[in-house]
Amino acid sequence: MNRTPSQFKILASENVADPRLRRTFHSATHHALGQRAQSVQLVPEWEDLRERAHRIKEEAIEHLDLHLERLEASVIQRGGRVFWARDASEAAGYVVDLCRRLGASTVVKSKSMAAEEIGLTDALEASGVEPVETDLGEFIIQLAGETPSHIIAPALHMTRQQIGGLFQEKFGIPYTDVPSELCAFARQRLRQEFLSARLGISGVNFAAADTGTIVVVENEGNARLCTSLPRVHLAIMGLEKVIPRFSDLPLFLRLLARSSTGQRQTSYVSMISGPRREGEWDGPEEFHLILLDNGRSDILADPRVRRSLYCIRCGACLNTCPIYQRVGGHSYGSVYSGPIGAVLTPLFQGLEAAQDLPYASSLCGSCSNICPVKIDLHHQLLWLREKLVARGSTPWRERLAMTLYAAGMKDPALYRMGSALLRLLLKVAGKSGRSLAIPGWSSTRDFPALAETSFKQWWKENRNQGEEP
Amino acid sequence: MNASREVVLSRIRRALLRPGTGHGREQRSLGKARSTPEHTGSAHLLEQFQEESARVGGEPRLCADFEEAVEGIQNLVAAAGYRRVALSDHAICRRHRLALRLAELLPDVNLWSEEGEAHSPGSRRRNAAQLAQADLSITGAEFLLAESGTVLLTSSTSSRQISLLPTAHLVLATPDQVYPDLAAIFEQLGTAPEEGRLPAALTMITGPSRTADIEKVLIKGAHGPVRQLTWIIGGEA
Ligand code: SF4
Fold first, then answer.
1. Strand, helix or coil at B211?
2. Nearest-angstrom CA–CA distance, A312 and B83
3. Which domains can be identified in chain B, with CATH numbers?
4. What's the predicted TM-score (pTM) here?
5. For a tag on chain B, would you pick the N or C end, based on fewer CB atoms within 10 A?
């Protein structure tokens, strides 16, 4: 299913009208928020941790070139290889070439938003390599030909019955919708793939520049399998994943686990520094790291949105967002959804291609409050709106309304005239039993009722009351 | 080094010519970093470890001595009906000749030990196939983290796959290995780059493998072990 961010309004209204999806997203996001709140509450210094994390990310991003060079040197020193990719096709091309060299017909893959972003699975398929998604959620949506609907829980939008039907159809197994049975089937099936694949691909949650360590955080164990069993391990990361020091990790790990699922710690954290070392039992013989730009340096160039690169992809802003809770992840038409998706997608794909996304927010600021690295997400959304307005990309009606509004607010006489006119219009409309029709606005809601008298008039009549001695 | 390296780096440098703005941000003055006065292995830490491990479905236990642990393994294997058991080459297993003792005590069990298995890439796949069949693996750990009920393993003291492929994973540890937080562990391990003591893989394990990808229903044993047991053995140095 090919959704694009330009379809936001259509997709969102479809999804909002689907009661099952509404329930699913409502309960899932609130469940996650509850778990998070419980575990955050146990950390009295939480606000301190956020501030520290913000500063470390600031340090990393404001000197990104230095940290990346350091990371590169450390990885090479540990026997790994580093590839810098300007864009999606260069990154995907590197992986395809590597598969050719290894003679790999299948690769096992754990969850990676960066891989998702560059369309890696399509690129591999096109060159005759079978990419096997091994995260249970990713495995399911790959089977269904879907895209993820949540950063942390990709198959959030699907019911157990849908998944059961899918397994029955694709694998010819007897129908079951018992989650543990479905999971056991996937486990057994994927084991074979793990044991035979020559290349394992993983994402990266953090990369420590000083030690050349990449960190992969997960609950299932599939990322451990991808990074331990195959002969070659390739990790792909957006440039912004670098952190200055290995010793920064305890802080980020605490923030990430608690923010995303409310766990004290995820089941597995793998800290990988280069390939297998002499004398070790196992581990990959080669380690490759792709540093992916793909538009990140452009985001970096705008100091006002630069902070969106601090994101550690915890998913908390999705869960807390009143828009995401209602429209779900697919409405955004992009791999990144929710508030952070509404910021990143227009930056990655161009404002014009995603011009509704900065408006997919009530600007309530809940996202900024919950963000473990203190990204001021709602400000960033506001700035993107400002850019859109400056480009004249907003609809003519809105521009007209805003011009009139600005004129009225600047001139008391005009303001009085305007409000009197509006009152009159509403009265007439009310008499004929209709509310005021404003295209694009009143089709989904009524115009709010105005008070009988204007405030100015009320003030004139009441100002002296109660002031008499 | 590929051509894009310079392109990407120069793009970044150009972008950074414009300094960052703190606009719209409230700076917060930082409190003191938390100090952790507790000593490793204190009774409180052991308790905290057990509580946290149990919370995430791990199976923590204190054993008075190694004999109790050996007996415990016997009972565990019998109760769960395990047929294949894999032993790591970790010092704690070797020190007590665990392989020999279990071979005597559990004659019906297919016992496989990593001890003596070649450290060669060719043996990796063979070992993986063995381990994928195992019901239980027994390894040591380098550190235990009380804050989250986590065990830390390094690739230099056990293989990566022995703690990953079998259905159940039992860690044998000692009280002095229990630390209050991750920072203390990193300090002890010597992870600073100049110390260079970071193994190729440092793995944190907190409870059994799990997933909630189907309707948020929690399922144990997604890809890794279904059971994760940690036994802390007293009277050990
Ligand atoms: S923007 Fe902040 S809250 Fe949202 S996913 Fe990224 S780190 Fe989490």
1. strand
2. 43
3. 40-233 (3.40.50.10420)
4. 0.91
5. C
Higher-pLDDT residue of B57 and B27 is: B57
Q: Where are the beta strands (DSSP E) in A358-468?
A: none
Q: Which two tokens stand for residue A397?
A: 């009606």
What's the rounded Cα separation, in Å, for the pair A336 and A322?
16
pLDDT at A280: 87
What are residue A450's phi and psi, to 5 degrees? -95, 155
**C-beta of residue B108 within 8 angstroms of C-beta of residue B160:** no
- Using a 10 angstrom Cβ sphere, with 0-12 exposed, 13-18 middle and 19 or more buried, the burial of residue B110 is middle
CB burial of residue B202 (10 Å; 0-12, 13-18, 19+): buried
**CA-based nearest residue to A62, from B193, B18, B74:** B18
Most confident range, picked from A290-294, B15-19, B21-25: A290-294
Across the interface, whether the CB atoms of B156 and A280 are under 8 A apart is answered yes
Q: Residue A439 corresponds to which tokens in the numbers above?
A: 């295209």
Surface of A (226-285) touching B: CB under 8 A: 227-229, 231, 239, 246-247, 249-250, 253, 257, 261, 263-277, 279-283, 285
**B92 pLDDT tier (thresholds 50, 70, 90):** very high
Cα–chain center distance at B223: 16
Tell me the two tokens of residue B167.
Answer: 């259905």
Contact B96, B156 (CB under 8 A): no
Q: Provide the angle, in degrees to the nearest 10, between the axes of the packed helices B182-189 and A249-260.
A: 150
The angle at the Cα of B67, spanning B66 to B69, to the nearest 5 degrees, equals: 65
Smallest CA-to-CA distance from A310 within A376, A360, A390, A389 is with A376
* Closest-CA residue to A235 (of A283, A277, A272): A272
Is the pLDDT reported for residue B26 higher than 80? Answer: no
The mean pLDDT of chain A is: 91
Q: Which of A1, A4, A3, A6 is nearest to A359 (CA)?
A: A6
Give tens-digit pLDDT for A284-328. 999 999 999 999 999 999 999 999 999 999 999 999 999 999 999
Beta strands in chain B (DSSP E): 59-63, 84-87, 110-113, 136-140, 143-145, 150-154, 168-173, 178-179, 201-205, 210-211, 219-220, 227-233
**Whether residue A421 has pLDDT greater than 90:** no
User: Which chain A residue has the Cα nearest residue B224?
Assistant: A221
The CATH-assigned architecture of domain A43-294 is: 3-Layer(aba) Sandwich (3.40)
Q: Is the pLDDT of residue A19 over 50?
A: yes
Residue B12 in tokens: 């970044």
Inform me whether the pLDDT recorded for A124 exceeds 50: yes
Our mutation pick for probing the ligand 1 site, out of A152, A373, A381, counting the most ligand atoms within 8 A of Cβ, is: A373
CA distance A5 to A13: 14
Sheet holding B201-205, edge to edge: A242-243, A206-208, A213-218, A268-272, B201-205, B150-154, B143-145, B178-179
In angstroms, rounded to a whole number, what is the distance separating the alpha carbons of residues A385 and A286? 46
Is residue A243 within a helix (H) or strand (E), and if so which, with residue range?
Answer: strand A242-243
Contact A31/B at CB under 8 A: yes
User: B133: which strand partners?
Assistant: none
The answer, for B36 touching chain A at a CB cutoff of 8 Å, is no
Start-end of CATH 3.40.50.10420 domains in chain A: 43-294
Q: Are the beta carbons of A149 and A159 closer than 8 angstroms?
A: no
Q: What whole-number distance in Å separates Cα of residue A225 and Cα of residue B160?
A: 9
**Could you report the predicted ipTM of this complex, rounded to two decimals?**
0.94
